[in-house]
Amino acid sequence: MKYNRILLKLSGEALMGEKQYGIDPQRLASYAAEIKAVVDQKVQVAIVIGGGNIFRGLQGSTDGMDRVQGDYMGMLATVINSMALQSALEKAGIDAALLTGFQIGPVSELMSRRKAIQYLEQGKVVIIGGGTGNPYFTTDTASALRGIEITADVYLKGTRVDGIYTADPEKDQTATKFTTITFDEAYQKQLRIMDLTAFTMCKENKLPIIVFDMNAKGNLLKVVKGEPVGTLVKN
C-alpha cells in the first residue's frame, strides 16, 4: 500500500444517493463496503463527513438565521451522518469509533489527537464529526485539521467527479483533467478544490490531497494502493 494512514473526506450530499435529502441506506452500505476493502488491507482510516444532506449553516445564514447558530446546527448534521456511517461500518463487521469536536455525552467521545491515533493503531476506523467544534469553519477545513493532527499520509477528498478539471466538467465539455497539480499552480489557476483555509493548511503542513470519484466501485482501494486515480495535489 502506498498510504498507510488516510483521512477520507466524504460530502454529506453524497449520502443522499438518489434521494432529495437525508441518507440513502444503499449508498451508506456501498461506502461501508469500499472502506472495509481498505481496512482489510491493514490501512488506518479516519473519516470526516459533511452535513449538507441535512443542513448547511451558511445556507441558513443567507435565509436570515444567525450564522453561529446555523453553523452549530450544521455541525450537529455532521454528527448524524457520522453516527449513520458508524452503524453501517459496524454492520459490515468493522470496529468504528466516533469522536466529535464538542462533547455529546452518550453519543461520542471528545476528539483528541492522542485518542484518535490510539484507536487507529488498534485497527479501528475513526469517524470525526462535529467539524472543528467552532463556527465559521467548513468540514473541508475540519478534514484538513484532523488529517494534520493524526499525521495522515494523504487527504482523500471523495466526490462525484473523477478529479480536478480546468473548469466544471458538468458545465463545460471542453474542460480537461489534471493528473497532478501543485498547490501553487492551483492557486494561480484559481481552481476551487476546497475552501482556501483548508487548502492552505494542507500546503503549509505538506499534506497531499487526492480528489477522486468515491462512487466508482473499487476506487478508494485503488487510490490507497497508489494507482493513478483522480488528481493529486502536492507541494
Query: Could you name the ranges where pLDDT drops below 50 across 5 or more consecutive residues?
Result: none
On the 0-100 scale, what is the average pLDDT?
Answer: 94
CATH class: Alpha Beta
Structural class: alpha/beta
CATH architecture: 3-Layer(aba) Sandwich
The 3D shape can be described as globular
Helix content: 25-40%
Main sheet summary? 9 strands, mixed
> What is the N-to-C order of secondary-structure elements (H for helix, E for strand)?
EHEHHEEHEHEEEEHHEHE
Specify the number of helices: 8
Strand content: 15-25%
What is the fold-level CATH name, i.e. the topology? Carbamate kinase
List how many beta strands DSSP finds: 11
Radius of gyration: 17 Å
Strand order of the largest sheet: 4-3-5-2-1-6-10-11-9
- Assembly context of the chains: single chain
Distance between the termini: 21 Å
What is the domain tally? 1
What is the CATH H-level superfamily?
Acetylglutamate kinase-like
Structure, described:
By secondary structure, the chain is α/β, with parallel strands linked by helices. The chain has a single domain (5-234), classed as Carbamate kinase, CATH 3.40.1160. The protein is 37% helix and 20% strand. The chain is built from 8 helices and 11 strands. It has helices spanning 25-39, 57-62, 67-91, 113-121, 139-149, 183-188, 196-204, 219-225; strands at residues 5-10, 44-49, 96-100, 109-110, 125-129, 154-159, 164-165, 177-178, 180-182, 209-213, 231-234. The two termini are 21 Å apart.
List the helices and strands and how they pair.
Layout: E1 5-10, H1 25-39, E2 44-49, H2 57-62, H3 67-91, E3 96-100, E4 109-110, H4 113-121, E5 125-129, H5 139-149, E6 154-159, E7 164-165, E8 177-178, E9 180-182, H6 183-188, H7 196-204, E10 209-213, H8 219-225, E11 231-234
Parallel strand pairs: 1-2, 1-6, 2-5, 3-4, 3-5, 6-10, 9-11
Antiparallel strand pairs: 7-8, 10-11
